[in-house]
Amino acid sequence: MKLNLAIVCGAVLALAIGSAVSQATVSKLQMTALTSPEDAVSARRLLMTTIGNNNDILHDTFDGYFEYSDREVRGRLDAISTMLLTFPHLYRGEPDVWTPEIEATDPARASHSLPLIWEDWDGFYAMATAAAETAFEASMTTDREKQRILIEDLEVQCESCHATYRRELPSVDFDELIGPANP
């Protein structure tokens, strides 16, 4: 089991390093995807929503709302790590077009990404990779307290990336939309 764990760790590290090296040697034109800009935005939003849903369940588990299952917690953390490694690769070579009209007419395809991502691609890529590594480290430990600490670290990393590279989102009052949880 420990040998398998070492092999998996080595493979993930090699993939992350190889990906970083290949990013440094590829021209921007070669990095342009064949996916339409709208579909790329939609894919990123779906992936980020899934990361967020997994993160919420992890926090609810550690807050005692769900029964702790080592297998489930580690699986969710591993999935988050994989998604965070994948996320930057869903960006096209040029910044997304965003207007208030796009946000109003087709919000599912409206990009929340700031142009700064393309201006500071290396910084964005490094933040996503670091967060993936934190999630992966948390997925590899069976120490619940260490997992909790790493999940909190991951939350800080995510919030920092969002504060730097994501448009400010309007706040939603869910109580106003659907009523209070405990009437």
TrEMBL record:
Family matches, as SUPFAM superfamilies: Cytochromes (SSF47175)
Extent of the signal sequence: 1-24
Protein keywords: Signal
GO molecular function: electron transfer activity; heme binding; iron ion binding
Example of a GO biological process term: electron transport chain
Domain of life: Bacteria
The UniProt record lists the keyword Signal: yes
Pfam hit, one: Cytochrom_C_2
This protein's name: Cytochrome c, class II
